Amino acid sequence: MSASDEKRNFRPTPGEGALSPPPAPDVPDPAAAERLQAILSSPSYRKADEDIDFLASTDARGPRLELEYLKAELLLRRHGVADTIVVFGSTRIVEPALAARRLAEAQALADADPVDTALARRLSVVKRVCENSRYYQIAREFGALVGAARESGDLPRLAIVTGGGPGIMEAANRGAFEAGAETVGLNITLPHEQLPNTYVTPSLCLQFRYFALRKMHFMLRARALVAFPGGFGTFDELFETLTLVQTGKVKPIPIILVGESYWRRAFDIEFLLDEGVIDPQDLRLFRYAETAEDIWQEIRRWGQRKEDLLFE
């Protein structure tokens, strides 16, 4: 084979002298923007502290408990709320004027259909609520006494604390508000709509998810507990406080039950003693009172009896 023939028949192998094809021009990927948007909008891409679904999940209960404690603690500390009087009582005991209007309405309905036993029963209950509306006024007067002590400079760190709801809680907040004092409400999220009363200082109204954390903050600064007539919620808070004092988990504080006739019928303390489930000294864990002045004087006397004064 001649040199010219050899040259004509030469077929270079890849990478051995062959020219590479020119690079293909970049072609935009029409689906890239859509894929990027899917990544950015995925729950997995959210920062943990901004992921509401994650924070509300069962697995994040621990951080929620810590945050609920910390937010209230820092806010109350920032406002100088160091000594508190906690007031509990029924949400259904309303101011006398409103109670009287409801009684008139129930009476009219019962009179229009005297054979309706449900209406007769409702009238009986409304009458009792109307009679108990005097406790609204007592709670309001007591809130005013505490508020005045704070505003006068006598007890500048003292504040009324309630659950922030209606009824007796509203009355205590209202009295302190009318005295010009800041007043605290520790509200709770419930399955049914429940809004804070309008007499709580806006910057001192907190909303809790957990009863346990709410009750902890009731007790952390409590220098006294005042329990007005109420139902299960009031009983829960009262008996938890009695248990904490009885077992020595907290220092003794004055626990005042307002309305001796109500409380003696609501629970029979002498029966518990006779049954041997409490000790005689447990009878001294609380006192009864009938008026706002009675409550206030009992709390002040307690402070004077203690070596470490109630309000330092």
Give a nutshell description of this structure.
This protein has 312 residues and is α/β, with parallel strands linked by helices. The protein contains 13 helices and 7 strands.
Structure write-up:
There is one protein chain. It is built from 13 helices and 7 strands. With 312 residues, it is α/β, with parallel strands linked by helices. The chain folds into 2 domains: 61-94 and 135-305, Rossmann fold, CATH 3.40.50; 97-128. The N and C termini lie far apart (118 Å). The chain has helices at residues 3-8, 32-40, 52-55, 61-78, 96-112, 117-132, 134-151, 168-178, 211-220, 232-246, 260-266, 269-274, 292-305; strands at residues 83-88, 158-162, 184-188, 205-208, 222-227, 255-258, 287-289. Helix 5 (96-112) packs antiparallel against helix 6, helix 7 packs parallel to helix 8 and helix 7 packs across helix 13. The chain is elongated and about 105 Å long. A 7-stranded parallel beta sheet has the order 4-3-2-1-5-6-7, with helices on both faces. The longest helix is centred in the first third of the chain and has 18 residues, at 61-78.
